[in-house]
Design brief:
Elements: E1 8-9, H1 32-37, E2 72-73, E3 90-98, H2 104-121, E4 156-162, E5 205-211, H3 214-227, E6 232-243, H4 272-278, E7 292-301, H5 303-307, H6 311-318, H7 355-359, E8 370-371, E9 374-380, E10 386-396, H8 399-412, E11 419-429, H9 441-444
Antiparallel strand pairs: 1-2, 3-5, 3-6, 4-5, 4-11, 6-9, 7-10, 7-11, 8-10, 9-10
Helix pairs in contact: 2-3
Length: about 450
């Protein structure tokens, strides 16, 4: 029986000698092209036994249980994992473009291959039955092996489709999908403080890999990229650490690189009504319903400038107490801000231009989103300043809802002075994968 979506387990890892589940569309594992991409095409049937079953013989080894993270989230379910799943500590996000010679059939086969590999990696297994060590000495390994012995580590792998998958900027319908493009799937408008670099924005497909171990997340992206070789090319990617929001009531509110508690009012997995109202797509074409729109924005933070600002001014800009996270109108971290409350002189306790005021649902027609961002530090720039900030990820039921909130923020949110957005992308994350399916299958049927 498949556990509920995002339900964690801490059981021992699956027996690596047991036959794995059949591959959607490919009963014996990865497609021939997928195996060729891994460099193992000449040994396509090396892992097969009588009757067509595949034996996962020691795909990953074992080590002391004290260093193995057995936390595992179900891959199959109504919604893809990695949205309402309790936010892990590490992330590797990647966007891909499809090669010009890729056909609709090639695209479907790629999604089938990725589904199979992802369903194994979230269990702590290699991408195929032969894995990193069992393919024979004269073949390149199917799996790169750097996550061997680390366990599932709470890995989730979330797939998304870019608007260019349906129609390109010049109007080409490469895969016969233009007629299935949901009307709300629009590009975000250019906003104040946007300095967007096209080379690290957009893409035909995206993969979000989150885990509690950075090597497990990187391993997932590395191997899915290998599987896509010859069909997809990596356009851009981003590493993240230290989640900047909580997606479950079981988690404490983390801090961003400005030292502030971030995402206090975030939608939680335990709030199905708010998720239904703000996150899950419930109109448009049937294939998209149950999915969500993923907004990804790389936001550079002016670290050195912020560090020179007085504490009381930092509090005023955010609208919260930096130490406790409580709104300046009083209470504790989770007290609902009172934007009408004033001091003895009649001045609002929370500045109407503060970040809390500008982004609050009360001031944006009730719009909320599920945030799932991460800190990043990508070295330094030529001036010796940290190239650091927030890799923002938000899930909404329509891109226009995010644009509404961000436009309100950009108008005069004092926080924007310390931020610069260098990358912006929107992807449609299809509904969850059911057993026997591949990710996004309803789009093609």
């Amino acid at each position: 029986m498949v556990p509920e979506p995002d339900a964690p387990t801490t059981a021992e890892p699956p027996d690596a000698t047991a036959a794995p589940e059949p591959t959607p569309g490919h009963p014996n594992g990865l497609s021939r092209r997928g195996l060729l991409a891994l460099g193992g095409g000449v040994g396509l049937v090396a892992g097969a036994v009588a009757g067509g079953a595949v034996v996962a013989s020691g795909a990953f080894g074992s080590r002391s249980s004290s260093v193995v993270d057995h936390l595992e989230y179900a891959y199959f379910g109504d919604h893809q994992a990695g949205i309402v799943t309790p936010a892990q500590d590490r992330m590797h996000f990647a966007a891909y473009d499809l090669r010009d010679d890729v056909t609709r059939e090639d695209l479907i086969e790629l999604l089938q291959d990725w589904t199979y590999a992802a369903s194994r990696m979230v269990m702590g297994l290699g991408v195929s039955a032969r894995g990193a060590f069992e393919g024979g000495p004269y073949l390149p390994p199917d799996d790169t092996g750097e996550a061997a012995d680390l366990g599932p580590s709470g890995l989730t792998i979330t797939f998304g489709f870019g608007r260019s998958l349906f129609t390109t900027d010049d109007g080409r319908d490469r895969f016969g999908l233009a007629g299935r493009l949901p009307e709300p799937f629009t590009a975000l408008p250019k906003m104040v403080n946007d300095f967007i670099e096209p080379a690290r924005s957009g893409g035909d497909l995206c993969i979000q890999a989150c885990a509690n171990d950075p090597q497990v997340a990187v391993h997932a992206i590395r191997n899915l990229t290998r599987i896509g070789f010859g069909r997809s090319t990596l356009k851009w990617s981003q590493l993240g650490f230290g989640r900047t929001s909580s997606t479950s009531t079981s988690q404490k509110t983390p801090r961003n690189l400005f030292g502030q508690k971030d995402g206090t009012r975030n939608i939680k997995a335990e709030e199905p009504d708010r998720l239904a109202a703000n996150v899950w797509i419930d109109d448009g074409p049937d294939w998209a319903r149950g999915g969500s729109y993923l907004v990804a924005r790389r936001i550079s933070m002016m670290i050195e400038t912020w560090d020179s600002v007085q504490l009381q001014e930092q509090n005023r800009v955010l609208g919260r107490d930096k130490a406790t996270g409580a709104p300046l109108s009083g209470g504790d971290e989770f007290t609902v801000p009172d934007f009408a409350k004033t001091d003895g002189d009649g001045a609002e306790l929370i500045d109407p231009r503060s970040h809390v005021a500008r982004s609050a649902p009360e001031n944006n027609g009730g719009i909320a989103m599920l945030r799932r961002g991460y800190n990043f530090v990508d070295g330094n720039d030529q001036a010796g300043r940290l190239d650091a900030g927030l890799f923002f990820i938000g899930f909404v039921k329509a891109p226009e809802r995010f644009a509404t909130v961000h436009t309100n923020m950009a108008r005069d949110d004092m926080f924007v002075e310390y931020l610069k957005t260098t990358s912006s992308s929107v992807f449609l994350v299809p509904r969850g994968v059911r057993e026997g399916e591949y990710v996004g299958q309803a789009l093609f049927t």
